[in-house]
Amino acid sequence: MPASSIDCPICGRPVEISDPHLPFCSERCRLLDLGNWASGRYAIPTAISEQESAGDGEVSERPKDEGE
């Protein structure tokens, strides 16, 4: 049997599955989450190349072989 509510990811209050703000409990929590993304507090991890991890973060373009 599926759950009839989940916890708001911002404040932890229970949210009914039928709530229009799902997964948030309110417009306020929805906007706080949006602000976290906009400010860079949340980030999606990416793979770091060997060149990036060995250097200072700058990646120079590799020259193309003439055969390509």
Principal-axes shape call: elongated
| CATH homology-level superfamily of the domain at 1-38 | Erythroid Transcription Factor GATA-1, subunit A
Named at the architecture level, the CATH assignment of the domain at 1-38 is 2-Layer Sandwich
Mean pLDDT level = 82
Write the element-wise H/E pattern from the N-terminal end onward: EEHH
CATH class type of the domain at 1-38: Alpha Beta
Uncertain parts? none
| Radius of gyration from the alpha-carbon trace, in angstroms | 21 Å
Provide a count of the helices: 2
CATH fold description of the domain at 1-38: Erythroid Transcription Factor GATA-1, Chain A
The amount of helix comes to: 25-40%
Major sheet: 2 strands, antiparallel
Spatial strand order of the main sheet: 1-2
Determine the structural class based on helices, strands and strand pairing.
Answer: alpha+beta
Report how far apart the termini are: 57 Å
Structure description:
This protein has 68 residues and is of the alpha+beta class. The protein has a domain at 1-38: 2-Layer Sandwich (Erythroid Transcription Factor GATA-1, Chain A). Helix content is 26%, strand content 9%. It has 2 helices and 2 strands, in the order ββαα. β1 and β2 form a beta hairpin. The longest helix has 13 residues, at 27-39. 6% of the residues are buried.
